[in-house]
Amino acid sequence: MTEQILLGIRDFLQPYVSLLNSHNVDYLTCNHWNTYVPEWIRQEDTVDLYDLFEKRYNEKSPAKNLLEELIDQIVDWKRKIEQITYTREQFEEQILPEKYENELTSLKNKTRTFMSPKKEHEVEILAPIIDQLANMVNVDSIIDYGSGRGYLGVKISYDYERNVLGIESSEEILHSGEKRIETLSKYQKELYDNIKYKTTSTIVNSETNFEKLFSETFDSYSSSFLLCSLHACGSLSCSLLNHFVENLSVRAIANVACCYHLLEEKFVANPFTNYCAENDPCSFPLSHRLIQEKTKLGRNARMLAVQSFERNKADQTLNAGLWYRALMQVLLVEIYGLTTGLQDIKLGKLTKKSMTFEEYVWKAVDKLKLDKTKITVNVINNYWIRYESCRHQLHTFIQLKVLFSGLIEMMILLDRLVFLEESVPTASSYLVALFDPIKSPRRWCLVSLK
Ligand SMILES: C[S@@+](CC[C@H](N)C(=O)[O-])C[C@H]1O[C@@H](n2cnc3c(N)ncnc32)[C@H](O)[C@@H]1O
């Protein structure tokens, strides 16, 4: 069933792969609207696609046109995905042995946590689940994979008095995490002095020996582990899955992934290195069938996978800077004659404050150290006037892409789920929508228990 849905989503996305891999900054220079958007959607360029999607999701009536048919197909896939995945509530009720109280426990009630509200939301939900999963497979030792500043590991260790080993490659980040523990201990000295959270500055890879790392760090032996990770970027999540598959001592995993654009695809060359990872063990795809059928996604489609429909719908200013950036691209090509590396020019931060297009252009030209004498206020205004009528179409274009984003993310995650089911058939594996999609868009947690 899971594999069927995975293959179905892949086939459904196939005709849209070019659209999904288009780079937004080239929207005007490469005429994306006419190149990638089907004519029957272009005719509906004033329809709010997010509203239409919600309407079609909530009330089933026969589709009136091709656009509604397309939206209904996406709705159908969403419903199929809901059948094979879990909401947090379903997971708690059907899989976890106890219903936990998701109240802000010790850390929060007594003192400040020194986390962003987003991180706090994630850690508050994930820590008690990991504690229960560890009980279910009878492991004492938890490994926080790519632990960063240790938000999750510290919480698990503190609240559930567990040994947690944080593995983090960046010394600087580890150091900043240590400072945070020092600050926390000012509020609750006796508790943080005894905390069983330790860290190691290590780059994890397929050779990493957890028993050895653990005994070196804790001065005691452990033979079974739960590996957890909160936002393990790119291939780091795949590396965690491979450890689960290959290593008997890894009894369980709880993996929240992120940064899908950093994955190495087997059948698509990385645009920066021009390297295709066909012979590497860890990348996309992982499941047998997708490998056998040489399934591709593409970097820009994977980048799109991190955009959440719910968050974009709730805050439609998220992509507000894009129009200026797309228009700037026209100036860069037509006035400055730039032809290469255009997609990689990052001007994002310029748009943070509200500013006119003219101000934006001057700042951009300044930042890129381009010849200011080549443009005038008039030139800038003429570009604005020339393209102004296409502006609302970019909005529809972005909405259209975001409607597909959840399906691209699902292709990546279901591929991993199928990989686990194939590789450790005796394990129980679940994909759970853990976090609030508006607060924390990378919200899926892949859980597997041996
Ligand atoms: C997106 S951050 C998440 C950090 C933390 N889990 C959190 O939720 O705040 C991913 C972390 O993984 C670390 N990392 C990336 N690759 C790694 C590797 N191969 N071994 C160890 N740490 C790694 C990065 O330095 C970064 O701190």
From TrEMBL:
Keywords: Coiled coil. Residues 118-265 form the Methyltransferase domain. Pfam families: Methyltransf_32 (PF13679). It comes from the Eukaryota. InterPro entries: Methyltranfer_dom, METTL25, SAM-dependent_MTases_sf. The keyword rRNA-binding does not apply. Residues 67-94 form a coiled coil. The keyword Membrane does not apply. This is Methyltransferase domain-containing protein. It comes from Rotaria socialis.
